[in-house]
Amino acid sequence: MISIGRGNDFNLVAMGDSQTAARVGVTTTAQTYVALIARNLGYANFVNDGVAGNTTTQMLARFSTALVPKAGALSIMGGPNDMTTNVSGGIWVGSGITVATTKANVKSMVEQAQALRCRVTLCSFIPLLFEPYLSNASPYLTAFSEIASETGCEYCDVYAAFMALSSPARVALYVASENPDYQHPNAEGHAFVASLAVGNYFRQVAA
């Protein structure tokens, strides 16, 4: 996401779902992690292309138009909506997207971006702190790690970093106005994601 050059020559694009997007009444676009990364690393322009409810299949379908021609750096964060999309009558309704399909979708986005000489960072999603997400997350996280190994893109393990926090510190990073919702980051949560990505950038520079 951030280890290509800095400054006016590159745009930063963030593909994602509601964990990437601004949230009405909670976070503005300027408070999202992509805006904070752009500000910290001197990008003149950024595109927050987080769309609430998107699966990775939907992200892939709009990918070619979302990746602006001048983009030099790209982040991808998605997957929770592939596991389950909604609740109907108290029953979880699956999206019908298998782990294999999720992996193929995300890998396709990474490879398309790399073909355009765009530097890519794949981010694991922010933990959803309730079932069935907690039980179902592991295969998706493994798939993301495999994509990074297979394509050589950078990998920022946001999920692991959130889970490494104490429970009170972790819960404080989620939307509190929804009691809390345990799935969408508040301003502090976005700042935490940005700090992980910026730290990753400086580790790459020092390596």
Structural features:
207 residues; alpha/beta; two-stranded antiparallel ribbon; globular
Give a quick summary of the entry.
The chain contains nine helices and seven strands. With 207 residues, the protein is α/β, with parallel strands linked by helices. Helix 1 packs parallel to helix 9 and helix 5 packs parallel to helix 6.
Could you characterize what this model shows?
- The protein is α/β, with parallel strands linked by helices and 207 residues long.
- Helices cover 43% and strands 17% of the residues.
- It has helices spanning 33-41, 56-61, 63-66, 80-83, 99-115, 133-151, 158-163, 167-171, 187-206; strands spanning 11-16, 45-50, 71-77, 84-88, 91-94, 119-123, 154-156.
- A 5-stranded parallel sheet has the order 2-1-3-6-7, with helices on both faces. A two-stranded antiparallel sheet has the order 4-5.
- Strand 4 and strand 5 form a beta hairpin.
- The two termini are 16 Å apart.
Structural class: alpha/beta
Ranges where pLDDT stays below 50 over 5 or more residues in a row are 1-8, 86-91
The H/E string reads: EHEHHEHEEHEHEHHH
Radius of gyration over all CA atoms, rounded: 16 Å
What is the arithmetic mean of pLDDT? 84
Number of strands: 7
The global form is globular
Helicity level: 40-55%
Task: Report on the biggest sheet.
Answer: 5 strands, parallel
Number of discrete helical segments:
9
- Which strand-content bin applies to the residues? 15-25%
Report, as a whole number of angstroms, the end-to-end distance: 16 Å
Strands of the widest sheet, in order across it, are: 2-1-3-6-7
